[in-house]
# Entry
Amino acid sequence: MTMDEDNKVEAAARDTFGKGAARKIRAAGKIPAVVYGHGTDPQHITLPAHQVGLLIRKANAVLDLQIAGKSQLALVKDVQKDPVHQVIEHMDLIVIRRGEKVQVEVPVHLEGEPFAGTIADLDAKTLLLEVEATHIPETIVVSVEGLDEGTQIHAKDVELPSGATLIGDEDALVVNVHVPQKVDLGEEAAEAEAAEAAEAAEGEEAPEGEAASEGESAE
# Structure
């Protein structure tokens, strides 16, 4: 993510801890967070929930924290959410500096359509890259336009953004183009369907048979 004015976030130091304190912080529209790294002591802060919630929709968000009048760049490392309500409960951020390199998992996005009758499976949803901390790409775009059956794209084949270096396995399969397999029901499934059809037919004939029995008894 490239830095811009939208990434500036007013943060406040906090000295209250525990579940009770965290609940009060969230009730006030804030998020409890910790900033650490570069040999500095961990900083316990609160962040504006709405603004930060929007910023972290993008992977590997970098925030320009404004703490007591000072600017501190930090990479969002971990976001803990309530599993039911999806409310952000806590965040971990790592101190970064302009010009330094960081290792991040960047999402892979497929673009285009493969050859008619084939599908492109995304086998690796992310790639581990080393990039400049303030220029982390949001996604890595891989085109599958017109690719034929049997085409495979490995990590080493992916065109990376300028300044990015692949850190993960070069031979990792990223995209596999193939023709979908037809579902074969098999003989057992066919027999089961035939049996169900026969039962349904017998069910429809049953009322007439019952009526005939009643008539014979009356005679």
Residues 114 and 146 are 4 Å apart (CA to CA). The first helix runs from residue 19 to 27.
